[in-house]
Hints:
Largest sheet: 5 strands, antiparallel
Protein name: non-specific serine/threonine protein kinase
CATH class of the largest domain: Alpha Beta
EC number: 2.7.11.1
Helix content: 40-55%
CATH architecture of the largest domain: 2-Layer Sandwich
CATH superfamily of the largest domain: Phosphorylase Kinase, domain 1
Oligomer: single chain
Domain RIO kinase: 22-253
Number of helices: 8
Number of domains: 2
CATH topology of the largest domain: Phosphorylase Kinase, domain 1
Shape: globular
Order of helices and strands: HHHEEEHHEEEEHEEEEHH
Number of strands: 11
Catalytic activity: L-threonyl-[protein] + ATP = O-phospho-L-threonyl-[protein] + ADP + H(+); L-seryl-[protein] + ATP = O-phospho-L-seryl-[protein] + ADP + H(+)
GO molecular function: ATP binding; metal ion binding; protein serine kinase activity; protein serine/threonine kinase activity
Radius of gyration: 19 Å
Amino acid sequence: MKDSNRDFQERWKEESRRMFDSSEAKKSFENVFDHDTSMALLKLKDRDVIQKMYGTIEAGKESVVFLADSPKGERLIVKIYMNQAGGFRDMYQYLRGDKRFRGVKKDRKSVIKEWCKKEFKNLKKASKVLECPNPIAFNENILVMSFIGEDFSPYPKLKDVEIDNPEAGFKRVLDDIRRLWQEEKLVHGDLSEYNILLDSEGELYFIDFAQGLHTSHPEAENFLRRDIENVANFFRKQGGDIDVEKSFESVLEG
Length: 254
């Protein structure tokens, strides 16, 4: 075991020198993540998924998001769920009621691994009916997806964009919510102006699908209502006249 660990440390020292764009990027990774995460990252490199890692672009209590490049020079997002995430018990509650993830073990590492897999699967479904990051690969607690932005900058979040016609804007978001629910049997589960991006042409992108639920989940309709309320509240502040109950019913009815 000691020899194996020594071999890994030697390889990590060599590979990370090539993989990280700067010493700051490497330090930001190593200050947050553990041995298992480093091994998972190397495996993704061996699979020719990741070539270069840049610094963090967003950090939360459960995950840290890095900018990266593929071997072909395509810009990527590398989302790493922390193995010491404090909210893993809440994650388990989301998983337990989803028929796609029955039998998940309750220990922290198993829950976080399934959580990562869950977001990958949710993105696969969502990408069929709306604009969102394209899921590329996952390994253990690391999810790799396409970058939504230009150069090194993500597109702005909806919360940071001036809205000319709030009612029309709400309708566009609601149409995506409806397609997701009716066609892919999925609800985002955590939708708000903080995880909708807008490009310069006005195209909307949904991000952060980790909390997405199958419509058969016992809490699915409650989360659907909350998504609609969150988005409605944002557009109301922009001056929109929006009926949440009517909007909720329109999604259920299709």
